[in-house]
């Protein structure tokens, strides 16, 4: 019989698969399908991804200012239903303006699934006396990639692009069953009154600013590959028809990676593990630039899948532990910067691809941004160590008798 913790984790992972794995990631294998079936251009493909991330950004901003725990819980549930509807409706219209609207709303749903869902689970784990790690939770991103890749290969030769969207929506509906049956009673675990209002995320202004800027750069590294990896593969004569396979490998690498990163954090600490994830993410882009064969792109996909999921999981878990009173709020603040990157980068890379006829310029831009983000992460690490060194003597001084 499954324990309450296992049921809660399964329900949480299923919710992430619905709100991000399908509502967001189904678009990646659908880009070449919509290009051939609906006349989608590189520019529009990038703009649709931008609309999705604009929704994600809006959701992150809204959540960062939201104080009511009950309102967050209601929005979380609404986001689950919205993720199913916005996915299915993509196949019910050929109006470009409607696609933009649906991808924007889908982004809102993704934000609620990740940020509110992570905050709810972390709060519940803490209240139940469990270790507040979110590696299993974020494995839903990798599982979602695997699911969309497998479905893409099963249906792409049998169904038109519009019906493929419907299949993804049906898969999301099925996943609602474990969410409805096994989600814990989050209402009882919610903080009350003043406890919910304060999160302490205002502490360490310079540290938080550097961390936000670094996470912004990580957002560029994530979104460019997540949006265009399959399209990049399909434009190569050596890889035509193998885009789904590369996307599947990405998901297979991402799904167990969060658990492995959690273990590395226990051994080396948050910062060393995070730094390694940033370096690996940059390496995945470098491989795309210099290796165009199947083995090279596959290796890039594996490194990318393992690294981007680690950056997201470890960063949000770290700030959740730093601010346990209301973890969704600092998570929302960080994700706001991540979301800005996801709005700007696909549009820019899509435009460059349309202009140049290839993705090389966009990939070089991405590599540069990730490198800057790695340096900013080192700066944030340095500031946090300095703040900790200052606080320890202060605490010791306050404990001196008769002072």
Q: How much helix is in the residues? A: over 70%
Number-wise, the strands total: 0
Radius of gyration: 21 Å
Topology as H/E string? Answer: HHHHHHHHHHHHHHH
Q: Quick one: overall form?
A: globular
Sketch the major β-sheet: none
Outline the low-pLDDT stretches: 194-202, 392-403
Cα(first) to Cα(last) distance is: 57 Å
**Which structural category fits the helices and strands?**
mainly alpha
Number of continuous helical runs: 15
What is the overall pLDDT average? Answer: 83
How much of the sequence lies in strands comes to: under 5%
Please provide a written account of the structure.
By secondary structure, this protein is mostly helical. The chain contains 15 helices and no strands. It has helices spanning 4-22, 27-37, 42-65, 69-89, 96-127, 135-155, 161-182, 186-189, 193-197, 205-234, 243-268, 270-290, 294-322, 328-356, 360-398. Helix 2 (27-37) crosses helix 10, helix 3 (42-65) runs antiparallel to helix 14 and helix 6 (135-155) packs antiparallel against helix 11 (243-268). The longest helix has 39 residues, at 360-398. The protein is globular. 56% of the residues are buried.
């Amino acid at each position: 019989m499954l324990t309450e913790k296992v049921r809660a984790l399964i329900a949480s992972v299923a919710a992430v698969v619905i709100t991000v794995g399908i509502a967001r990631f189904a678009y990646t294998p659908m880009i070449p399908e919509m290009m051939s079936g609906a006349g989608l251009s590189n520019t529009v493909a990038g703009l649709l991804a931008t609309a999705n991330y604009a929704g994600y950004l809006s959701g992150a901003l809204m959540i960062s200012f939201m104080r009511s725990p009950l309102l967050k819980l209601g929005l979380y549930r609404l986001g689950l239903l919205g993720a199913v509807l916005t996915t299915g409706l993509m196949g019910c219209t050929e109006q470009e303006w409607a696609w933009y609207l649906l991808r924007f709303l889908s982004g809102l749903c993704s934000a609620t699934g990740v940020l509110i869902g992570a905050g709810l689970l972390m709060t519940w784990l803490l209240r139940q006396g469990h270790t507040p790690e979110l590696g299993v939770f974020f494995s839903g991103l990798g599982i979602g990639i695997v699911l969309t890749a497998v479905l893409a290969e099963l249906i792409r030769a049998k169904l038109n692009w519009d019906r493929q969207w419907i299949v993804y929506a049906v898969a999301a509906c099925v996943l609602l069953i474990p969410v409805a049956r096994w989600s814990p009673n989050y209402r009882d675990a919610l903080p009350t009154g003043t406890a919910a209002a304060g999160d302490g995320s205002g502490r360490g202004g310079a540290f938080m600013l550097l961390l936000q800027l670094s996470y912004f750069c990580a957002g560029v590294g994530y979104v460019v590959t997540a949006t265009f990896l399959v399209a990049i593969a399909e434009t190569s004569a050596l890889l035509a028809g193998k885009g789904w396979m590369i996307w599947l490998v990405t998901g297979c690498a991402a799904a167990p990676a969060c658990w492995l990163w959690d273990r590395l954090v226990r051994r080396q600490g948050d910062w060393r593990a995070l730094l390694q994830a940033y370096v690996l993410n940059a390496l995945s882009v470098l491989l795309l630039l210099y290796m165009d064969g199947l083995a090279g792109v596959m290796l890039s996909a594996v490194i990318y899948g393992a690294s981007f999921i680690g950056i997201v999981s470890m960063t949000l878990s770290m700030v959740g532990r730093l601010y346990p009173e209301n973890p969704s709020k600092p998570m929302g603040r960080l994700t706001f910067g991540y979301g800005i990157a996801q709005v700007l980068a696909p549009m820019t890379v899509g435009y460059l691809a349309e202009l140049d006829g290839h993705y090389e310029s966009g990939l070089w831009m991405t590599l540069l941004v990730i490198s800057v983000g790695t340096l900013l992460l080192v700066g944030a690490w340095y500031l946090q160590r300095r703040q900790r060194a200052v606080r320890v003597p202060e605490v010791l001084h306050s404990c001196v008798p008769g002072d």
